[in-house]
Each structure stands twice: as C-alpha cells, then as structure tokens.
Amino acid sequence: MADIKTKEFKSESRKALNNPQIQKSLVRVIDHFGEARVNAIEEITPEVWEILREKARTIKTHTMSYLDHYLDLMEANVRKNGGVMHFAKDAAEANAIVASLISAKNAKSVIKSKSMISEEMGLNHVLEEMNVDVAETDLGEYIIQLAEETPFHIIAPAMHKSKEEVAKLFVEKAGTKLYKEIPELAEASRHLLREKFQFADVGITGANFMVAETGTLVLVTNEGNGRMCTSAPKMHIALAGMEKMLPSLEDLGVFLRLLARSATGQRLTSYTTFVSGPKREHDKDGPEEFHLIVVDNGRSKMLQDVDLREALNCIRCGACLNNCPIYQNVGGHAYGWVYSGPIGAVVTPMLVGLDQSKDLPFASTLCGRCKEVCPVKINIPHMLLRLRNKSTQNEGAGDKPGVKERVFFSLWFYMVKSKFLYKTSGRIGSGAQKILRMLKLENRIPFFGRWTRSRDLPLIPTKSFRDRWKDVGTAE
Amino acid sequence: MSKRIKASLFITCLVDQLYPDVGLSMVRVLQKAGVDVQFPEGQTCCGQPAFNSGFNSKALDLAHKFLDTFEDSDYVVLPSGSCGSMIKVFYEDLFKEDPALQKRMQAVAGRTYEFSQFLVNVLGVNDVGASFHGKATYHASCHLLRELGATNESINLMKSVQGLEFIAVENATVCCGFGGTFSVKYPDISEAMIGKKLDTIQASGADIVVANDSGCLMQLKGAMGRRKLRTRAVHLAELLDNKVTING
Ligand code: SF4
Q1: Could you write out the DSSP letters of every residue in B37-53?
Q2: Which residues share a beta bridge with A77?
Q3: What mean pLDDT comes out for the span B129-149?
Q4: B126-240 under CATH 3.40.50.20, yes or no
Q5: A150 CA distance to ligand 1 centroid (A)?
Q6: ipTM of this model?
Q7: What integer is the mean pLDDT of A150-154?
Q8: Which DSSP symbol is given to B143?
Q9: Which residues in chain B have Cβ-Cβ distances shorter than 8 Å to A354?
C-alpha cells in the first residue's frame, strides 16, 4: 500500500496554511472548478440536475446491494470478449497479479494513465523495484511522479505546483531546458511521453466505470493519454476498485453527465474511452491481451457497514474537495494518504484503519457543503459522525481515545445532567472568569488557550437566562 | 376568542449561560407575535457537544431528558440552528434501537422549530415591525441552512426591518469555522476560516452581521473583537427586538 502519513494531519495542515504557493493555488484552482461546476448545473437547470442525482443514487444503491451478481456478470462478459478478469482481495494481491503478468510478458516498460487505485496500491514503487520503467502519462500525474509526491487533488494531482516549480522539476528530473510558459512545458512533456507511448510493452489504466451487461471498461480523460495506454502497447492491464460497477450502458449515461459537470464543469470530458476486451481478429490495432483486476482492499468491509457503505457510491469527481472549507484551506497532502477532502476523511480511516487516522473524521465542522454538492448525494457529515462515535467507542481503533477529552466530556455530562449543577455552573464560571481576567490568566487555561490566542472569550454573565426569565415570562 | 399559540422555549445552554439577552429578545419577539411563551425549567443541553465528539451514549441520555421535558409541548422553539438539527435530525438516529421511543421523538421533533423558521413558516410572520438604520449582512449557519433547509427565512425577516439596508456577501453560506470542539482542536484551520469570513464582512461595509446560532456568534464575536472591527455580530432575535445599535 501507499505510505500512510495520516497521523501528521495537524502539522501538515499547519504547513499548508503557511505555504503561500499552496494557498495561491488553492484559491485559483478551486475558484475555477467551483464556478465551472455551478455554470454547468445552471446550463441543464438545477431541477434536471436534481433528477440526475436522485437517479444516480438509486442506481448506485441498487448496484452495491447486488454487487456479487454484477461482478459475476462482468466476469462472464469480460471472458466472452476475450479478456481475463482477476480479483484481488488487497493491495498486495493486486500488485502481485500485475507483477506476474508483467514478468510473464518479460515487459521492461509500462505506461500508465491516471489511476487512484494504483496510488492506493503503491504500484509504481513495486514496478520500479522490478526494474520496470514506469511512466505516468497524465500530465498532472507525470509531474507528481517526477516530484515523488502523492496526488494533491483527486482529479488535479499537481494543482499545488506553480509553473516555475514544474519547469525546475523538468530540468532536474527529465533533463529538459528551462521553460517559462505552460504551453512550452506541455509541448516538452508531449515529446518526452511520445517515445514512451511508442515503445511501451504494457499499458496500465484505472477505470472510471465498469459496465456489467457488456463487460466494458470506461475511462474519462481530457488529454487522450488513456486512449494511448489502452491501444498502443501489446498488453492492457486495467485496475478497478470493485465499487466502480454499473449494471448497464443506460445507467452509464447518467454518470457520465454527472461526473464531467461536477468535476470540471464540462458537458463531457474530451475523451470517453470504452474498452471491451483485447483486439479482435480483424482489428488493425489494440492490445493482444486484456486483463482487468478488480480490487477489494477494504471495500467489502465498508460494504458490510450499513452506516458507511454509502461511501462506495463515490465517483471521485472532486466536487466535495473543491467546496470543503477545510480542504480549501489545507489542501490535499495534509490528509496523508491517497484520498483527500471530505470523502478522503471517510474512506481513508476505513481503508487504512481508524487508529492510523484519528484526526480525519474530527477535522471537520460538519458544515454539510460536501453533501450538498455531491452528485450521488453521499451524506458525508453523517458518516463522519459515525466514525467519531466508532473512534470514541474504540471500535476498530487500536488506540485509546484522548484522555483529556474523555475527562472533559464526563465532567460536562454530570453538569448538564443535573439541573442544580447546571444552574450553579454558570455562576461559578462567571466568578472564576472575572478572577482569571483580573490575574490575566485567562489565556493560560488549557484548552481555552487555543481559543483565546486569536479570539476573545465571551464574558459569562452573572445572571443566566433562567435567572432572568421571570422578568419577561408570563405566569400561566 | 381565538386560541393563542403556546410554545415552549428550548433556550439552549449557550444562550442560557452566555447570551441571556438573546433569549430575552426571542421571548419578547414571540410574545409580540401573539405567542404564549413557556419555559420548562427542567431543560439543560441538547447533547450536541457530546454527539459531535462521538460520545453518543451521553447524547442519548440528554435526548431522553429533552423528550421528558418537551413531550407535552404544543411547539418547541429554539434560538439555534445546530441544536435544532440535533433534535430534528440526529435524535432520530440516536433512538434507532427503540422504534417506540423513536416515534415519540419524531412527533416532538416535528413540532420543534428554530426561531426564524417558527416565525415565518409556522406563524406566517415576515415583518415584526422592528427598525434598524444601518447596513446588515447575514451569515447562514451551516446546520440551519443544510440540515434544516432554512434558505430565506432570516433574510426575509431582515429585509422587512424598517431602515435596514441588506448587503449580500458572496461567502455568506461558507462555514465560519466554529464547529464546536473543532475550533480548539484545530485552531489553525478554524482561524483561517473565520479570517476569510471577516475579510469579506469587513469589505462589505456592513454595520452588523446577523446569525442565528450561538456557536457562530461566539466565533464571529470572538474574532471580530480581537480584530477590533467596527462591525458587530448579533443574533436575529436581538435585531427583531430593536436591541441593536451601531458601533460608533
Ligand atoms: S463524495 Fe461525492 S462529491 Fe466527493 S468525490 Fe465522491 S462523488 Fe464527488
């Protein structure tokens, strides 16, 4: 699996907040995506949008309930089309299948189009260890491959880099000249990748959707690189999380519209590639072998949890990231693993373990913006609450919940449970606050210090509402 | 004589202990609208702080307490969107193990309203006859907007205030960064969020910013105080009760 740095959420988010380049990119890219999405919805009208969302939700809920059936159907149809479908229960198994296919072909070079599941698996690392030359062919992925980083955003992995940073990276890691403008950089990457496309032995792609009724794999891209990866090399290996399933081509129509408009505000992405097996007898081009590896890696466990299975409906459009006020401030790397933003905060704890990622469900104000924009209407805030509860219950977490917090809530609980304690606490609080203020100690109280360093505390009044209610209340 | 509407106040712990004036204003506005206001003394907190921190069993205890206190009320009215969503949305979830209790809870939740929604949607009042001479903007509290679906109620009420010039700001529906314990667990992020919010409020030239949630108000007031802004953060009830004046 990819390296897990989820425990560093607090320090990494602070770093991002203090990094001017990251802050600048966040505003620029997120404003752009946000506006594009809103316009794209306006175009088909919010009413139609709502109908599509509702449809999508129904389709996904149905598919996930009958996933076994659709996996079998997919397998049968892939086989009928002349391909092979494999099933991997975890990242290690998926990596091993890829490795054995590559060894059997004696392949030396691989081209990849963007795949989040391969990030999850840490596949590039495995291939490099086998001395296989791996090239990411999506420009953003190519940049972060050169920089040896993880994606900053689900659909715009290198959005945090300035063109100057990219130019420098190209000089240092790819041996190009120092370019100044984006078109020059794009041109340079085209030359660098052209050769790879021509001579690669194997193409590895992800999958945006799998269509069970036809055994078809669907890829959406904007650079056309996906199509090169699926057609030029002799072997095509596709990786798909098992939740990518859709029953029929008719269902696919709903999702293609939702995905493009939510993600980039496009009507459709520039390329929508359908792959149904290897090259047929009379085809001029195409791979001789087609392998689809369907990966579980924790997804069955998610499916079993009624409160959390909804997360499997995600189509990775990135809208919840773009609209999340936390993501807008800290960006993607703070989340410490492959997926970021609101959906990352739900999926990561389930895939890497809650004990590894305790901050993620808590680092949210539950403002609900994610749920409002999600094209498949995933109720992310409610799932975050469920994860918080699991975390305090120690359910699935190998870690003790914070002692300070436990004590705080126990004290608080006794106070609010008892009418008497509750009534007097305000008076005690008010008196204590006055003394602390006088002694200038208010900022020193643990917990409160993190409030008062940038915000004034309200002055606790001597008389609470209930003390004064009689002044306005009418006696019955 | 037509029957007067009777409503029980759920004052919420923050208003009770920190902002009693908001509570008193709410009572006066409701009384002026012809409501017979009651205050059941047994009430404390809705349990939201515990629930949001994952301590569901503690929250469940307080949900029981709420049910005991308010089951006989015709209506329950409260001055906070987030406590409102705790009662109207999340209690149901807490009671899911006990369908009979859940049903009783749903019935009370159905009669429970946040202040602005009660005025506009139940009483049909959009104008309470208040006046305020100055510029005002609105901060939409997240839970009130997205869990309870209050999109226009407060804005309508504000726009009917005589002399009030309403200013729309573009990030009015973006979270202020309070989020309960979030604000002290992740102070850096919380500060960045309120910082951006205040930048636009300041740029709008508003004299006051109105919100219907004590949590948001605490965050807004706290950060505005530190920045020494001229703009004030006030609860809608205070505005409607003619208790708001412009800072000099
Ligand atoms: S959770 Fe919804 S909004 Fe977020 S990436 Fe997935 S589909 Fe898009």
Answers
A1: EE--TT----SHHHHHT
A2: none
A3: 96
A4: no
A5: 19
A6: 0.94
A7: 93
A8: I
A9: none
